[in-house]
Amino acid sequence: MNCNTTIFLALIGILGIALQVGFKLYAFNRGRANKHNLKTELIIIILSLITVIATSLVPYAITPLQLSGKWLAVGTFTIGYMTYSLLSKLISADIK
User: Fold this and answer.
1) Could you read off the pLDDT tens digit of each residue along the chain, which spans 96 residues?
2) Which residue range forms the structural domain that includes residue 73?
3) In the chain, how many domains are there?
4) Phi, psi of 62 (to 5 degrees)
């Protein structure tokens, strides 16, 4: 894997985060979402970004992951999407 692959995987993961943020904004505009303050949302996004970047660097260390090819991008997208969702649920449950 090269640097371009790492950047591609990170961008795919960020796309997953952006999709989840878009769904949350849509639900917020429709009045169906929990209201967090801006600081909490920024913390969730930063933690999600750190997770995605770390995940995009992992294939360098684990040889069998290099054989997964295109599925690695799908996995990184899913990790970005699910990380934001899970952190949002955990932090909102902690605030209540």
Assistant:
1) 577 888 888 999 999 999 998 888 887 777 765 666 778 888 899 999 999 998 888 876 666 666 677 788 888 888 899 999 999 888 876 665
2) 3-95
3) 1
4) -115, 110
